[in-house]
Each structure stands twice: as C-alpha cells, then as structure tokens.
What we know:
The radius of gyration is 29 Å and the shape is elongated. A hairpin with a 5-residue loop joins strand 2 (91-96) and strand 3 (102-105). The protein has two helices and six strands. It is of the alpha+beta class.
Amino acid sequence: MAVVAAVHVMRINRERAHRQQLQMQEQVQKNIDARQSCRLDAQTLLASAGGSKEATKNTSWYDEQALGEGQVIALHGRKCGQNGMFSRGEIGEATQQENGNVVIIWPNGSMSQTTWPNLAWYRGRPRLSTDVVSELSDLFSRVVSEEPSTSAGGAPPRAGGG
Length: 162
C-alpha cells in the first residue's frame, strides 16, 4: 500500500513539474513576442518616416507654443516597455529633477524618465521640481542679501578711492 501511495505522489509531482515547465515556456514566449512587437513598432516608425531618422524631425504637425508650463508633447508613440506608454501627440505633465532628467506622467498614468532636452521624442516646457525651485530661491536670497546696500549709506564707494 505504501509503495502505491509513493508511486502516486511521484506521478503527481511529475505532472506538477511538467505544468510549471509549460507555464515558464509560455511566459518566455510572451516576453519574446513583446520584445519583437517593440522592435516591429520601432521599424514601423522608421518606415513610416521614409526610412530615415532625419525624416522623423518633421514637427510641423503640433504647436509647441500652445503647450503650458510643465507640459510636453510626444513626437512618437510607445506601446510597450518600461519607460512609459503613450501615443504620438499625447501631452504629458513633465517635471525637471535636480539631476537634469525629466519625469513625464502620461494621461494613462504611466511614467517616462528622460534626459532633457530629448528632441527625438519630446518637445515642451517641463516645470522645475519644487526642490530645484527652493534651491534657486535660496540662492537668489543669498545673492540679494550679499549685495551692497545703497539706501542707508549713500552711494557705494567709487573705484580709485575718490
């Protein structure tokens, strides 16, 4: 009886391992398909632009001046990947970080991070992060407080002692 039970457990474990292996193979295939889809999207983008990167610089279809403070427009779309998903022409909310990078939040909630400017992908006017604004404000205050005052002491001294 114990031998029958052991054989039964071994068969169940073998079937379970086989199912797990099939699931892993399916996941690997999905990942491969997703990467190929991203590559095809990039190839389609270049092909639709006449096959050259130079042709993707045509930006006459949007009005950069109409963008508000903190807004950027996507010059191309991205349907997959880890750096945001958006369509050509979508407007995202952008904030420039202390390190110079810009973080863009797209209408669908996904997020992109990029160096700025990135004229191949985006145009617009990212707002400065509150940290950067605070740092600039502190610097401005220090510069102003270090300037010589002319209100109480009359004119500042002239060069040459006279």
